[in-house]
Write a structure and sequence with these properties.
The structure holds 2 protein chains of 2 kinds.
Chain A: E1 2-3, E2 9-10, H1 18-43, H2 48-65, E3 67-68, E4 80-83, H3 89-98, H4 139-152, E5 160-165, H5 172-183, E6 189-195, E7 198-199, E8 202-203, H6 204-207, H7 213-219, E9 223-228, H8 232-244, E10 253-258, H9 266-269, H10 283-298
Parallel strand pairs in A: 4-5, 5-6, 6-10, 9-10
Antiparallel strand pairs in A: 1-2, 2-3, 7-8
Chain B: E1 26-28, H1 30-41, E2 45-49, H2 58-64, E3 69-71, H3 76-88, E4 92-98, H4 99-105, H5 107-115, E5 122-126, H6 143-148, E6 154-156, H7 161-173, E7 178-181, E8 186-188, E9 204-207, E10 212-216, H8 219-232, E11 238-242, E12 245-247, H9 251-258, E13 263-271, H10 276-287, E14 293-298, H11 308-314, H12 319-330
Parallel strand pairs in B: 2-3, 2-4, 4-5, 5-7, 6-7, 10-11, 10-13, 13-14
Antiparallel strand pairs in B: 1-8, 6-12, 9-11
The chains are: A alpha/beta, B alpha/beta.
């Protein structure tokens, strides 16, 4: 992370070693997971499982990849990050608090009346939220337009990163957008797919089979890499590999990230998976303790 | 099998059928021409279509500004999602497809990606109402009813080439999203004979009349003017009020004309559910104007395929049927 002369933060490598970059992402993800538990506890519910699962992906984006200005979310030269999965807002808020875009204290207003942090993400409510996601299958179509629009205006070096879920691969519009992005050679567009293998009615494999996912994206003309989405090193390596071959008028790129719902909190990792996870009042502290213990074990 | 050639019959009107009468003055592709002209002075303007460039006159723009034209293929959800994304980067997209696909298939994308963030995306829908003989798959008889419930969206139902030409720069200048009911190809030129100019959000009195007031939008204003001429021969004095902006509706002008002892008739190229008749009746009810209004429009049913003149006659929106309806109402 560097601060430019204009005050903008540019996430990035700054000549740091791979290990240093990984550590920065892991630290941010760890704190973001704690934020997510805190937000969930205030509401007594929420999409905590998704936030824990996606924390590494979101932290890799905001700590290592995205160009943005925390003080000016509408900065013209920023990269665009689109949260197509509106219900992952809890995880997004945790990441943008770590990025300095909203104060950490404000996170406890999550999903409350008049909060800037509604349960389903909306652009008009939250600084740094580019779109109102939640009607699934929209994000990638909007991302295609942003990538086209930026390139047309000579700003093709600005990246558009669309975060979507494996459930959104059910939506035909996702594949309309995938085809359109490849046809228009949107090398400035990157998709991140959270493969948490879970959707509203149950495991993705039971709801609607979507595998083989990499082959689908490749068949649609994308450069595709599949990684463990809870491995910061693997995520950064994937970003680096794509960066090396990226051109504004080249192939769009997708990182398919296998993640674990509830990651970092064994109580939730092992619980019967639910799209909207219920956590009992006395369990929140157990979750926090497990998250902290896991961190200490890793040291 | 017959050995002789079959007799010629009125055939199903093609998708690209002109709605102009044989002897009518027309202007070719007023939308595409106006958009291409606007793009000369406004660098923000871009055009998109979903494999219907030729059928929505977008090809005129595409030819003159190829670098600012984007073919999205037969992918209407992408068409409008991508238009939203382009608007987010500061561009002013005009995105064309048929009205049926915009209103029915891509509603969610227009609603949430364009209207909710109030983006300057201009949705251009071909074949509004009964302007094709292809049947319900292509006839957007309920597009205005669908779109009127969408917050932020401005809806324009132009009468002729003049309306379209003058509306295009105003739609681009308007900050929020718009929906234009496109007339394409050889489009009648009618309103240049009246002291009229298109003003977004305004209804205009095209002619005064003591006995009847016809309140109309879209191509039905052309029919209303023809019917008014024909009714003059029956010694019936007919006023015509043209309300090309359906939403936001110019209640003030329309109610001023409605709230008189004259027979009041609405005319629209749309189902009588949820369109102009509804807008007029809602405005009247809100103001306590108790007045009978006769709706002329398409019936609340899926319509037949066939030749447009046959169908317009069948469903009561031809000039002759309008005259008959008015005379019957006058008793």
């Amino acid at each position: 992370m560097t601060i430019t002369q204009t005050g903008a933060r540019v996430a990035g490598k700054d000549g740091r070693s791979r290990d240093e970059r990984i550590r920065a992402v892991e630290e941010a993800a760890y704190r973001a997971r704690h934020h997510a538990l805190d937000m969930g506890e205030v509401q007594g519910q929420g999409y905590v499982g998704q936030a824990l699962g996606a924390a590494d992906m979101l932290s890799a984006v905001y700590t290592d990849q995205l160009r943005y200005d925390a003080a000016d979310p509408h900065w013209d030269d920023r990269d665009r990050f689109l949260l197509s999965t509106g219900h992952y807002a809890i995880g997004f808020y945790a990441a943008i608090a770590e990025a300095g875009i909203v104060p950490v204290e404000e996170l406890l207003t999550y999903a409350g009346d008049d909060s800037r942090l509604p349960m389903s993400g909306m652009a008009s409510y939250t600084p740094g939220m580019e779109i109102s996601g939640g009607s699934l299958g929209h994000g990638l179509t909007v991302a295609v337009g942003m990538a086209l629009g930026l390139r047309l205006q000579g700003r093709g070096e600005q990246r558009v990163i669309n975060f979507l879920s494996d459930g959104e691969l059910d939506e035909g519009s996702t594949w309309e957008a995938a085809m359109g992005a490849a046809h228009h050679r949107l090398g400035n567009l990157t998709a991140l797919v959270d493969m948490n293998a879970l959707q509203a009615d149950g495991p993705t494999a039971d709801v609607l089979r979507i595998e083989p996912v990499e082959e689908k994206w490749r068949a649609f003309g994308w450069k595709a890499i599949r990684v463990d989405g809870n491995d910061a090193g693997a995520l950064l390596d994937a970003f680096d590999e794509l960066e090396a071959g990226r051109a504004a008028d080249g192939q769009p790129q997708v990182i398919i990230c296998d993640t674990k719902v509830g990651r970092g909190v064994p109580l939730l990792e092992d619980r019967e998976k639910a799209h909207f996870m219920r956590i009992e009042e006395q369990e929140w502290q157990i979750c926090r303790d497990q998250l902290t213990a896991g961190k200490e074990d890793a040291r | 099998m017959s050995t002789a050639a079959p007799a010629k019959r009125a055939s199903t009107s093609a998708m690209i059928a002109s709605i102009a009468d044989a002897d009518q003055r027309t202007q070719t592709a007023p939308f595409g021409t106006a958009l291409a002209a606007l793009a000369e002075t406004d660098q923000r303007v871009v055009g998109l279509t979903a494999d219907l460039g030729k059928y929505t006159d977008m090809h005129i723009f595409a030819k003159q500004h190829p670098e600012r034209f984007f073919q999205m293929g037969m992918s209407e959800q992408l068409l409008f999602g991508a238009s939203a994304g382009m608007a987010e980067t500061g561009l002013v997209p005009f995105a064309s497809t048929y009205s049926v696909f915009a209103a029915r298939r891509a509603y969610d994308f227009i609603c949430l990606d364009i209207a909710e963030p109030n983006l300057n995306v201009n949705v251009v829908g071909g074949l509004p109402g009964l302007t094709t003989g292809y049947g319900p798959s292509h006839q957007a008889t309920e597009d205005m009813a669908i779109f009127r419930g969408m917050p932020n969206l401005t809806i324009v139902d132009p009468c002729d080439a003049l309306d379209i030409e003058q509306s295009v720069p105003q739609l681009a200048a308007h900050e929020g999203p718009t929906y234009l009911r496109l007339l394409r190809g050889k489009v009648p030129l009618v309103l240049d004979e009246y002291d009229y100019s298109f003003e977004l959000g305004k209804a205009k009195v095209l002619r005064g009349g003591a006995d009847v007031v016809l309140i109309s939008s879209g191509l039905m204003t052309m029919r209303a003017l023809q019917a008014a001429e024909a009714l003059a021969a029956h010694k019936v004095d007919v006023a015509v009020v043209h309300s090309p902006t359906i939403k936001p509706f110019d209640s003030e002008t329309v109610l001023r004309e409605l709230d008189t002892p004259r027979l009041a008739v609405t005319l629209e190229n749309h189902t009588v559910v949820g369109g102009l008749f509804s807008a007029v009746a809602e405005a009247a009810a809100r103001k306590g104007v108790a007045k009978r209004i006769v709706p002329i429009g398409l019936p609340d049913e899926f319509l037949d395929a066939g030749a447009l003149p046959t169908l317009h006659e069948r469903y009561g929106i031809s000039k002759d049927r309008i005259v008959q309806t008015v005379l019957a109402e006058l008793g």
